[in-house]
Amino acid sequence: MDKNELLKVLTPSSQDVVKIFLTAVIILIVTKIQLLSDRLSALLIALPLTSILAMIWMRHESKIPNQATRIEAIANHAYYTFWFVLPTLPMFLVIPWMLRKGHGFYFTLFVNAMLTTALFWLLVVILKRFTNIELM
């Protein structure tokens, strides 16, 4: 990708502004619902809303003229998202455990970011060694 292509991709469009606004509204709604119900907000956040929105945007904005190729790109996005989610799952058990043990919030986030990174690379190595799945 040359400099002009990179600038074109990184320059926000009016559709980008809509996407930013919609994403912000979803996050705002979920954080407001959390004030009423931890469980309901967790359920809403657990839904793959951002992935669904991303796939909708990919479907409608794609510069790929061939529909079969565009659909394949969206299918690949969903497929790889599955694998990338797996190493994040332990974080949702470790964070509450650490916080309840009295660890600081930012320390807990840092530890879990490192744990997730390590688990991600472990998954990459395992999948590459034992399957034909290559994440990186």
Polypeptide structure, described:
- By secondary structure, the protein is an all-alpha fold.
- It has a domain at 89-136.
- The protein is 78% helix and 0% strand.
- The chain is built from seven helices and no strands.
- It has helices spanning 3-10, 14-34, 38-46, 49-61, 67-85, 91-100, 105-130.
- It starts with a helix and ends in a 6-residue tail after the last helix.
- 0% of the residues are buried.
Strand content: under 5%
- Report the count of strand segments: 0
Mean of pLDDT: 89
Structural class: mainly alpha
How is the main sheet built? Answer: none
**Secondary-structure element order, as H and E?**
HHHHHHH
Summarize the structure.
It is built from seven helices and no strands.
Write the layout of secondary structure elements.
Blueprint lengths: L2 H8 L3 H21 L3 H9 L2 H13 L5 H19 L5 H10 L4 H26 L6
Label this structure with key terms.
single chain; 136 residues; mainly alpha; globular
